[in-house]
Amino acid sequence: MVSRLRMRPGQALADIGCGTGGVGLWLARALAVRLVGIDISSTAVELATARRSHFVPPERAQFRVRTMEATSLPDSCAHGAVCVDAMSNAADRAAVLGEMHRILAPDARLALTRAVRREADQVWREQAEDAGSEVEHVDERPGEPEMWRRLYRLWIAREADLRRQLGDVQAENMLGEAQRVMPRLDGRRALVATLRRPPVTAG
């Protein structure tokens, strides 16, 4: 993601579906950029806000409770965006791709992780292109479906810890995801797709 985003220090990065902030905060530190994270869970946003000073000065990172389909961010405000393992929770994935395209500045990039069935590979590409984005790179991570299977089993086994640390709402979301997605991992490909909003052309 560091190399694919092609960001410069001081630019703005949006983390859509940021959870407790890990990926976005790591990238904000590595790239020396400003961060805004969006997540539907108020508990996750509180935890992300509490840990930001471990990564960057607090004024360089903010987190908001919003949906992926309606972030409330201004048009063309982000010089880069990431959406890590959150698309599976979206009710309308085409709308999410449209929203991420809207907030990207021209010639900015979105790094998006997806787990897709092989027969549905073309669907997400068409959705991205319909939103106005170009599919610039697709990198496959062959070991990731099994990693998620292990992680989902761990979530289920540690349900009490999840509820205590994250609250019932966030824990229910995670456990629901585990029960819903784990049976579908067979036959899926784990991808990191880089989508680019085309630059504005003169004339």
UniProtKB/TrEMBL annotation:
It catalyses: phosphoethanolamine + S-adenosyl-L-methionine = N-methylethanolamine phosphate + S-adenosyl-L-homocysteine + H(+). Pathway: Phospholipid metabolism; Lipid metabolism. InterPro entries: Methyltransf_25 (IPR041698), SAM-dependent_MTases_sf (IPR029063). Keywords: Methyltransferase, Transferase. GO terms for biological process: methylation. It holds the Pfam family Methyltransf_25. One of its GO terms (molecular function) is phosphoethanolamine N-methyltransferase activity. The keyword Methyltransferase applies. Residues 15-107 form the Methyltransferase domain. This is Class I SAM-dependent methyltransferase. It comes from Streptomyces acidicola.
